[in-house]
Amino acid sequence: MHLKSDSRGITLVELIIAISLMTIVLFSGYFFLSLSTRSLNDTEAQFDAGQDARMAVINMEDDIRKAQAVNIGGINYRAAKVMDAGMSLNVYTDVNSDGNMQLVQYKLEDNQLKRGEAALGFTPSTWFTIADKVENAMIATPTPIFTISGKVIKINLLVLDEKDQLLDNPISVKTSITVRSKGAMN
Question: Full-prediction pTM beyond 0.70?
Answer without folding.
Answer: yes
